[in-house]
Amino acid sequence: MNGKRWIALGAAVLLFGLSLVINMASFMFSNSWSSSFEKILDIPESGYTETVIETGDVSERIAVLTVDGVIQDTGGASSFFGPEGYNHQFFMEQLEMIKEDHSIKAVVLQVNSPGGGVVESAQIYDKIKEVQDEVGIPFYVSMGSMAASGGYYIAAPANKIFLNKETLTGSIGVIMESVNYGKLAEEYGVEFVTIKTGPYKDIMSPTREMTKEELAMLQEMINESYESFVDIIEEGRGMTESEVKAVADGRIMNGRQAIEAGLADDYGYLEDVIAAVRNDFDLADAEVIEYGYSSDFSSLFSMKAQSLLGGNMETQLIGRLLSDYNAPRMMYLYGEK
Length: 337
What we know:
Number of domains: 1
Oligomer: single chain
Helix content: 40-55%
Distance between the termini: 29 Å
Strand content: 15-25%
Largest sheet: 9 strands, mixed
CATH topology: 2-enoyl-CoA Hydratase, Chain A, domain 1
CATH class: Alpha Beta
């Protein structure tokens, strides 16, 4: 190996070692030491905080929720050097808190996401519908620079959807990808040995081409998820199947095109959406809040390390190589994983 590769390998080993040290520290601080540090740092024991965005009547409140990033469940934790982003477990807990908090009278959901996992998107959709149906809380969506694929999926049940002229949305459909490097490996004399219990156990293996039977199996799965996507848009937007499928071919749209297609209602930034909720539901004096999360000392340390190192592309890349496992799966996702 040349010098650069030795340096990269050494950095990877160093980062892996540091990650192990941090995990050990996390275990130590998770016990009796944690409470002492939390008192020193004034960290709430519950872990959840509320930030007031606009003051008002605390008995009638508007909650602002945010989905920012790829919609995927990482188990509620990230590696020490992993980038901060969307936390699926925390977001689902926010929806549950809203359901139980009788002072919340409306929700503004900010969506800035290219989408993500089929399962995670469906979980969010189902929970929003549960809150709407059981508690009667209205949801308004404020789309950011992007609310595509799964990002649109979770917005579909909203009472109203607002976006900007430059917002990228749409990309309605399902995708499942893998990489086939079998021929490349063959050129370098690499041989793969696979022992399996059935002919389809290694379906979508990166070491061989797929058979027609395998393609048909996966296409059937993809089609079912696509039809589910179309159904939730029909219900949420009051559109017919033909109207939805006319634009549900994976195409990306800007704000104007989305409104013309019936996928959104109007233009507006977050403050405009909050104002619309106030006006539409007689909440002129309502307090506007958003939830936050304060973890224990070890998580705080991890967060600070991410802030320090998050801008370093090489560090992020090595961290992902050390921690990520991207098995092929169905995604409501626009762009690259």
